[in-house]
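User: Need the bound-state model for adenosine-5'-diphosphate:
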Amino acid sequence: MAEDRACLLAIDQGTTSSRAIVFSLKGDVVATSQQEFAQIFPRPGWVEHDPEVIWATTLATARKALADAEARGWSPIAAGVTNQRETAIIWDRKSGRPIHNAIVWQDRRTAPQCRALAEAGHGDAVLQKTGLVLDPYFSATKYAWILDQVPGARARAERGELAFGTVDSYLIWRLTGGQRHLTDATNASRTSLYALEDARWDESLLELFNVPEAGLPEVCDCAADFGKVDEALLGRALPITGVAGDQQAAAIGQACFRPGEMKSTYGTGAFLLLNTGETMTQSANRLLSTVAYRLDGKTTFAMEGSVLSAGATIQWIRDGLGLIARAPEINALAEAASDDSGVYLVPAFSGLGAPHWDPDARGAIVGLSRESGRAEIAQAALESTAYQTWDLLDAMAGDAIETRTLRVDGGMAANDRFLQRLADLCGVETVRPVNTETTAWGAAFLAGLGAGLYESLEEGRALWRADRTFSPCMPESERNRKRAGWRAAVRQVSAGGG
Ligand code: ADP
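Assistant: Bound-state model below.
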């Protein structure tokens, strides 16, 4: 095989679709395949996926992308996995069959359990150990719910008959024909069961959340030996050598390898991850601490902030208000807005995320006058994502972390007007890379690292290239005035906001 035809398979198992992308070793996309799958909403606030569908779509897209790549003379060397995080699955070790649907990260059914733990005063200890707030978002209470609700499950788990896992673990299990029950440190760090500084499952947390250790996977580095894909599945025993949760994979794909380097992914929501280096940094301003990656047994930490509605706000302008037919049309509409309209849209459709963490807040458009119209609302929608990013940067500034540059990706990063506004309102440079498939590329790069095709993270840095940089050009007085207007608008919708 000619070295320059070597390639890497990235499996990117997301919340609404499963994707597979084959990359050259330089990070160019060689082949891609994607399948959307059904969201299951058994009750309000409940969100499930069928694990068999997760598996079937993953396998089908991996096969398709590999076949396309091979038909054009490419040779796959290794596979990496990245995935929707926190989503919890429990399956039978013997039959491989899931005992319940996957409980998805968005699912709120375990809110009462989290409230009870908070009321019993466990919030601080959980935060100290895991970097996470007590919230149904994370996996631990989801595992416990399945064990308590499926008849006989808890006893079977205690006997070691059941396996628990986030989506990465489940896929590794299936891909290796049931040979390996593993996870990586980034996925483990989203369960509420993993002690960040000790880098292992924590006995007191397992007890607190009532999750038996017998069911949990072994926690590995992000670049490691995760076993070989069963030859019958993909026609070859491809080694799995890289794994990371989706936001961490994006940070790796964006080459955020030094303390202070930060990426923000603008999809349905927005997720900002800041590399904080090799010592765990706790935020005093309600941002989460998490594992950025673990390599050669050494953990690099990150601080994370999540915005619940980013691209979803543009979708609402499209589908809820019907002001545009396609997301990119938002720019033509916003173009006509007067620059200082005083109109703010607070997109708290399902509450506000970090740093507000206010599940009860609801959205509002404030500051309307007779001059306000569709254009001003469109502009306010674009700006709302920029202001929410600034809320996170401001929380970080409160933690003595100053940032100059934000690396962006995700669907909204295609929008130049948004990226300029983001730079202006946040007062930081925003940089879009040439390769915007950062999540899948992060998994592929880890796989290459694990397979020995790359020597160090520095090679990832060398492969990262900027496409376009947007520099702030708004006068500071205007920026401050607008920020004050945003804070006032947030105060109007949120009990603890602003
Ligand atoms: P996800 O991975 O969460 O499904 P994507 O990264 O695919 O999201 O991004 C899709 C989101 O980006 C949608 O919510 C859409 O409204 C928004 N979006 C896509 N293109 C644009 C654009 N040109 N301007 C603004 N928003 C956009």
